From TrEMBL:
GO molecular function (one): glycosyltransferase activity
Designated name of the protein: Glycosyltransferase family 2 protein
Keywords, ordered alphabetically: Cell membrane, Glycosyltransferase, Lipopolysaccharide biosynthesis, Membrane, Transferase, Transmembrane, Transmembrane helix
Any Pfam family matching the protein: Glycos_transf_2
PANTHER family: UNDECAPRENYL-PHOSPHATE 4-DEOXY-4-FORMAMIDO-L-ARABINOSE TRANSFERASE, UNDECAPRENYL-PHOSPHATE 4-DEOXY-4-FORMAMIDO-L-ARABINOSE TRANSFERASE-RELATED
Database matches in Gene3D superfamilies: Spore Coat Polysaccharide Biosynthesis Protein SpsA, Chain A
GO cellular component terms listed in the entry, alphabetical order: plasma membrane
GO annotation, biological process: lipopolysaccharide biosynthetic process
Natural source organism: Denitrobaculum tricleocarpae
Length: 327
């Protein structure tokens, strides 16, 4: 069923006209996708909104693609998408965003751990409180202890650095207002940072507690090295939020941290040579100071290049320099 984009209007009695898209990226979830789809279709039909269900197969190697084709024959609301290979969850999710024309977009995982019964509550809150993002919080999370602890630490770091007050950035069950969502695109593994990225373009973000079920089919795609990738992604998100329009402040600041002590060290050695006649050629301080000066100059030059690229990005119209508040 093709969903035509409609303007959301809200009066005293509630929502007059809203369309929904539910996006589920799946990878090797043949054992769970049929049950999840049946739950979603039943829940969404009960809500009474025009909707479609976009199931994105991220290059599965099991029978997931076959299951999606069979499900699309049973349910006309399903819009299956099949990626050529395994690109990752963020790209699969972006494929779903690109395929949607609905006013409100819901995302969740395909492993049956997110509860479709939470969707009406989250959509209602988004519309009632005029929010742009409602993010799920798996307060009673059904995952191994180590994974929960690492996730808790990562979430605190992300919340502190991005100033987006959420407890659970990694929860895939989220509800977005499309007019804000189209202001950004996600690459790599940036899907978990969408609330922070949307906060950079003026989104109003809130959090709702949701159910979390233990995994029944398949196995988790989580691995310990993901924790380290998340830490690198945090650096990138902070850079986008704070320094996209002023990269020289980021690189130049780091450059000055190297350049100033390096120059001081070289100055000290020159004074020793001129006034004390000391042999400075074999001193480790000479090598260290020269290296710090070199790194500092490189970082400042990198910042200047970033300033030029930033201006090209904005002035070429590829990305607006600012957004107005939503009426």
């Amino acid at each position: 069923m093709q969903v035509q984009s409609k303007r959301i209007s809200i009066n005293k009695s509630g929502v007059d006209d809203v369309s929904l898209s539910v996006i589920v990226p799946v990878y090797n979830e043949a054992g769970s996708i049929a049950k999840l789809t049946e739950q979603l279709i039943r829940q969404l039909r009960d809500m009474g909104y025009a909707f479609d269900l976009i199931l994105v197969d991220d290059g599965s190697t099991d029978e997931t693609a076959r299951e999606l084709r069979l499900l699309s024959e049973r349910f006309p609301e399903i819009k299956p998408r099949f990626l050529a290979r395994n690109y990752g969850q963020s790209t699969a999710m972006q494929c779903g965003f690109d395929s949607s024309e609905a006013d409100v977009i819901v995302t969740l995982d395909g492993d049956l751990q997110n509860d479709p019964a939470d969707i009406p509550m989250m959509v209602e809150r988004l519309l009632r409180e005029d929010l742009d993002v409602v993010s799920g919080w798996r307060r009673q999370r059904r995952d191994p202890f180590l994974r929960k602890m690492l996730s808790r630490v990562a979430n605190r770091i992300i919340a502190r650095l991005t100033r987006v007050d959420l407890h659970d950035f990694g929860c895939s069950l989220k509800v977005y207002r499309r007019e804000l969502l189209i202001r950004t695109r996600i690459y790599g593994e940036m899907h978990r940072f969408l609330p922070a990225l949307l906060g950079e373009v003026g989104a109003k973000v809130a959090e709702s507690e949701v159910n979390h079920k233990p995994r029944v089919h398949g196995h988790s795609k989580y691995s310990l090295d993901r924790t380290f990738r998340v830490l690198l992604d945090i650096v990138f998100v902070v850079f986008l939020r704070k320094y996209l329009q002023r990269p020289l402040h980021f690189f130049g600041g780091a450059g000055l941290v190297c350049l100033i002590p390096g120059s001081a060290g070289l100055g000290y050695l020159v004074l020793l040579k001129l006034f004390a006649g000391a042999d400075i050629g074999t001193r480790p301080l000479l090598v260290l100071s020269a290296l710090l000066v070199l790194v500092g100059v490189i970082l400042i030059c990198q910042g200047l290049v970033g300033e030029v690229i930033s201006r090209i990005l904005f002035e070429a119209g590829k990305r607006p320099q600012y957004y107005l508040k939503r009426e």
